[in-house]
Structure formats: structure tokens, C-alpha cells
Amino acid sequence: MPILLAPVHLQRTHFCRQKKNMSKFYYDKDASLDPLLELPIGLIGYGNQGRAHALNLRESGLTVWVGARQDSPARTQAMLDGFAPHNIGEVVDNCPVLALMLPDEAMSAVYESSIEPYLKSHTVFVFAHGFVVRHRTLRLPDDADILLVAPTGPGRQLRSLYVEGKGLPALLAVQQDASGLGWPRCLAYARGIGSTRAGAIATTFEEETVTDLFCEQAVLCGGIPELIKASFETLVENGYQPELAYISCLKEVKLIADLLFSSGIDGMRSAISNTAKYGSAVAGPRIVNQSSHKHLESLLAEIKSGSFAKSFIEDTNAGSIAIKELLATERHSRLARTGRQLKDSLVF
User: Fold this and answer.
1) Active site residues
2) pTM
């Protein structure tokens, strides 16, 4: 994997960056499949996100090639889904559009060994996350279109909504528009996976990457689990039953998350009891206070500067030590043990 370069801000197109705090939305009426109809799309990385993209694109009438390693589970799954998988080099050689759906940490090695040697001029690259472009971990050609079509949820949700005739919103950006057709192609790809059914939002690779990483760390995968663990331990250490603490601190999160998703914070407040409303009014600001805001600002600064990306790549190259330690610790925690016991005793 190459040494991480300093972040760049090369927004070469004028249409993907709106005025601050104003979003531009695009729907099916704004997007046509025509810019991609004659261009085979080579999808590399047939995992959770890639599989959903491939199936949705094919069912939208676009031509999809799947690239996968020999004897890999992804190749087997692609065959079960009715694709005839090819070696990655064959896909690159035959497809002017390459949708790279590999994990961020694996992208560089596969690109250098199996993609870059076979590249032709004027390739169109599509990414579902801006990390590798924003942090320049790939040597992308100057004559390429570099597009972002980032669904706002996991691949299984992108797929299930498409099958239901609905769509999952996506974030769109064009980092490099060598052909002059970058934006129509970006919209066409978004329509192909079903996202313009729900609405696609114009952004930049910079904005998508920073907001995605920040929200993962601060709220979704960092903040919420740590608050659950700390609250659970507080109750148990004060003599309360672990099973009740587990249900209250972890299982009931889904109720509030569903309310937040469907109705926003104000709608969630209107649906809970007055006791809960008052408790949130007096307790929330004590838990998330000025000190918390300082830590959030620090997280954001590390992401924007590239220091988080640098440390992530270094940890990956060292064998993902931090991730393995976290998973091992949580797997053997009292919280996890309680959850496994409850799973055997109760039906959720």
C-alpha cells in the first residue's frame, strides 16, 4: 500500500458543490440510464455493497461484469446470482466503467496488482465511499472520470428496497471529469442502483468522507456502543441484574432508533413518556457537555487532517491490532456474555 499522501481538494466540476448548508436533490426525472447503456460496467468487490450494486444495475438494464478471484466465496456467490465471473484483469480489459467496491484497506493492493496494469485510457471509476480518493491511496489516471455514488446504508438495504420498488438515497460527487460526461454518468449509475427513486444528494468526495467517518466514530459505531457499555456496567456494578441492564441499555435502543429514523428528534420526544422527556432534559446535557464537544472537535480535526486515515492504514499494515483487541475485549465482556445468555432464554 502506498504512503498516504496529503489530502487534496480537486473539485474539477461546478455542479457537485452547492452553497453551504444547501443540498441539491436529484430523482429519476433528473437521471437517464443512457450515458451508461453502451458501457459495460466492471464491478470489482462482490461483497455486501458490491453484490447489491451488481444485481440492481443488471435489473435496471445495464451490462455488468463481475470480477473476482478464483475459488473465492465472492466468485461462488456471483455464479449463484447468475453472473459469469471473470478474473479482475479481464474485467478491466473489457469494461470502460469500473465500480470498485473493495474494502478501503484492500483497495490499494488489488488496484496495483490486478487493475492498474490492465487499464485503458478514459476509464470511468465509480466508488461507493470517498476514502481512497480523498486520501489519494490510488494512482488514478488524469484522463479518467472519478465518480462517487455512495448509498446511505448497507448493501442488503440497497438491495431489499430496490426489490420492493423503492430506493435508498445516495450521495453523489464528481472528483475528476475528464470526459465532460461525469455528472450524467454519475446520475445514470445512481439511477441504475435505484437511489434516484428516493433522492440523491450532490456533495464532494471530501464532504462524504469526512462526514461518514465522523458519524461512524462519534455516533453510530463509537459513541452509542461505548455509552451502552458504560451504562450497563454502571447498573451492574451497583447491584442491578445484568439481564435487566442489558435489555434496558441495549435492546431498547432499537425503539428509540426507529423513532429517530421515522420522526426525527422532536418526533421521538413526542412519542415518549413525560418521565423520559424530563429525564432527557436534565441528564442529556450532563452526559454530552462541553468536554464532549471538545473531544468531537478533536475527532473531526483528526479526520480532516488525514491523521486518522494514516493511523488506520498503519494499523492495517501491522495486522489490524487495534481492531482485533477491541473485538476480543468485547467478545469476552460481561455485556456480551449476558447477551448470549438472554438469546438462549428469551425470543426477541
Assistant:
1) 129
2) 0.88
